[in-house]
Amino acid sequence: MGKSMSGIPGYIKERVEQLHKSIEKHNYLYYTLDSPEISDYEYDKLMRELIEIEQKYPELATPDSPTQRVGAAPLKEFTPMVHRVALLSMDNAMDRDEVAAFHQRVLRWLERNEITYCCEPKFDGLAVEMIYERGLFLRGGTRGDGVTGEDVTGNLKTIKSIPLRLRGSGSIPEMLEVRGEVVMFKKAFHELNRERIELGESVFANPRNAAAGSLRQLDPKITASRSLVFFAYGISDSTLLALDSQYAILSRLGELGFRINPERKLCHGVEEVWNFAREMQEKRDVLPYEIDGIVIKVDSLVDQDLLGIKARSPRWAVALKFPPIQVTTVLKMIGLQVGRTGTITPVALLEPVRVSGVTVSRATLHNRDEILRKDIREGDTVIIQRAGDVIPEVVGPVISKRPAGSKPFEMPDVCPVCGSDLKEYNERDEFKKNRKTVSIFRCVNIACPAIVKEQIFHFASKEALNIDGLGRKIIHQLVERNLVKDVSELYALTRDDLLSLDGFAELSTANLLASIEASKSTTLERFIYALGILHVGTVAAKQLALEFGSLDTLMAASKEELQKIRGVGQEIAQSVHDFFSNKQNKTTISKLLSYGVFLSAPSREKQRKTMFTGKTICFTGALSSMTRSEAKVLSEAMGAHVVDSVSKKLDFLVVGADPGSKYEKARSMGIKILTEDDFQAMMKGA
């Protein structure tokens, strides 16, 4: 500190000490235990008071003061940091057989019949080491090559889950070198990328790159603005804490104020290790951070010493790597799909590659604006991502591998299927949460074979008229052979028409004709949904059916009348009005009715109130006891409003197997989450 503190009043010193303890306590509760006790406003008051005192008495601004986390002056470059004890890398195991082989080697070396392992999820972040002297954080750096890394002390100080002074009771070594991983949670990663998009900056490919890029900023204030989290997983010298196991070391690090992974587990034998690996792989998509496997360590420190190390890796540890959710492959061509509303969607046609255990040869590119923003070109080596229930997408190109002479993508002027001119519209981008408008291109030829095929597929789907047996291959033949030119002509198909199709015999023909005939008797809401009106899903279709009661009344409704309906905003109202104003659509509807399609009016009986009445529910993941459609029907019968996305208006998220990103979003928003069993029990109670 340099200056004397003799002139500082005693009560000021005491208050500073109180503020230090209080702020660090609340940092620990919030950033390490996820259990805050005070509001952000109250926390900010404490921090402002400490800053004001330190500005008046600079001598009190000690290195372990919470105010030191805000970031020092920018550096010109990082200085090297040599690790006293090398940070060893670990051997990788790629499957069950390789884990079993590691286990057998350990048993053979130790001459044992059984062994206990300490297992943890393997973070996909940036490894660092921090040095503490007499309990105070002195300096820290990246792993680097294992021997020499970069000194990023100023940046590490900005991470609030890193204690500047060690906590807890018991003896603290004179020097302690703590190792761990700096990560960026998925939620923070997506928010950071959204901000960068709005600023016109390039986005990070994944949370690991974002964490590494944030920690290696020359300006610590930039690091401080990023939401980084540190998890401790070990120390350089296991003898310093006088403990006998890896699991005990983790527990002690938690007592000293570090965040440690709550998913850690002691596993007795290789079978328990494999069960833990399977459990972590199943939870991978719902964890708040990215993992790419599990770390398996012999728990006994005595056994670790006996096993020793080989070259640059320990014999007592191995990392089981999960199948990647991000891989690279070559984008052979940007194809164009035509949807049932004529929307042209770019699709990446790829060299087949395995992602998360699935072979992927196609991935979404969303729209033209997204392709241009990411500068994705045919021939590029691209990063492919697949996670949870999200379809594969192209994260971005690897510019360094771009072939010479590549050209930026250009949307063609005509439909790739029928050759008609494309029309450009500005619409909200449903892919982006900030809902910016993007350019959408549509084929406006309603006779386009691609549009007709998609309309028929939608019309025959389970939620619409439920024509069993009418799949894409059959629809493709019907349209290509000019047997069906719009959905109404399904009802004009004859036995001879179907027998002329590939793969059709008498029984399959009779079954499909019976299914088409049965679909003639349907409800108004199913019929509205089956028409495939832009933006009208099952929920909006039901509301329209209930409010207007008949197809004639709905078709005659004005935009103003439509907008008054719950769940029908300006966009849907415009779309419904435009659809029923189209002469071709009116002709198709008339033909459908002339073929005998009968629409039963919606029931207006007063619904009995239940605990679900008026509640909004969303389902995610695979349900085991019922289909998603059955769950929706059951919920609506109980008075609930079923939606497809998570928002603040949601009351319940029902979670099945492999729930994906909706689960994490709902959890972060404090929405009540129900398991399938919870949902079933509540339904029985209702």
Instruction: Indicate the mean pLDDT.
Output: 85
Strand content: 15-25%
Radius of gyration: 31 Å
Proportion in helices: 25-40%
Count, helices: 24
Biggest β-sheet description: 5 strands, mixed
Itemize the secondary structure elements and their pairings.
Elements (H helix, E strand, L loop, with lengths): L9 H23 L7 H17 L23 E3 L8 E3 L2 H15 L5 E8 L2 E8 L2 E7 L5 E3 L2 H4 L18 E10 L1 H13 L8 H9 L4 H6 L2 E8 L10 H10 L9 E4 L1 H14 L7 E8 L2 H7 L1 E2 L2 E2 L2 E5 L4 E13 L5 E12 L2 E7 L3 H7 L6 E5 L7 E5 L24 E7 L8 E7 L5 H11 L12 H9 L14 H5 L6 H13 L2 E3 H7 L7 H11 L2 H5 L3 H5 L6 H12 L1 H12 L3 E3 L15 E5 L7 H10 L3 E3 L8 E4 L5 H8 L3 E4 H10 L1
Parallel strand pairs: 2-13, 21-22, 23-24, 23-25, 25-26
Antiparallel strand pairs: 1-6, 3-9, 3-10, 4-5, 4-7, 7-8, 10-13, 11-12, 14-15, 14-17, 15-16, 17-18, 19-20
Structure overview:
- The protein is an alpha+beta fold.
- 35% of the residues lie in helices and 22% in strands.
- It is built from 24 helices and 26 strands.
- Strands 2-13-10-3-9 form a five-stranded mixed beta sheet.
- β15 (344-355) and β16 (358-364) form a beta hairpin.
- α1 packs antiparallel against α2 (40-56).
- The longest helix has 23 residues, at 10-32.
- The chain is elongated, with a radius of gyration of 31 Å.
Question: Quick summary of this structure?
Answer:
With 686 residues, the protein is α+β, with helices and mostly antiparallel strands. 35% of the residues lie in helices and 22% in strands.
Question: Main attributes?
Answer:
686 residues, alpha+beta, five-stranded mixed sheet, 26 strands, elongated
